[in-house]
Design brief:
This protein has about 90 residues and is an all-alpha fold. Helix content is about 80%, strand content about 0%. It has one domain.
Length: about 90
């Protein structure tokens, strides 16, 4: 095998291996955001803090969409943002 062929094979294997990297689903962040939103709703956050409520609800909604599309890193960030906004 020539050096060029060996290098090409190595580059192809590196790209193939990098495609196999898997991020675990953010199930904890999903659950915490859901719980925080339910608690905020129970104390009428939409009435007393509508800006934070909207931010929490919208981040959670977008996070669920990304979660279902298996975009776990972005979903994790949005779930954390939703939880923080709901807890304020």
């Amino acid at each position: 095998m020539s050096k060029l062929a060996a290098r090409s094979l190595l580059i192809i294997l590196m790209f193939a291996a990098s495609g196999c990297v898997h991020t675990a689903p953010p199930t904890l962040e999903y659950a915490l955001a859901d719980t925080a939103l339910k608690a905020a709703k129970a104390v009428q956050a939409v009435r007393y803090s509508p800006g934070y409520w909207y931010e929490a609800e919208e981040s959670y909604r977008q996070g669920k969409i990304l979660y279902n599309e298996r975009e776990y890193d972005q979903a994790r960030d949005l779930f954390n943002k939703a939880r923080v906004a709901a807890e304020i």
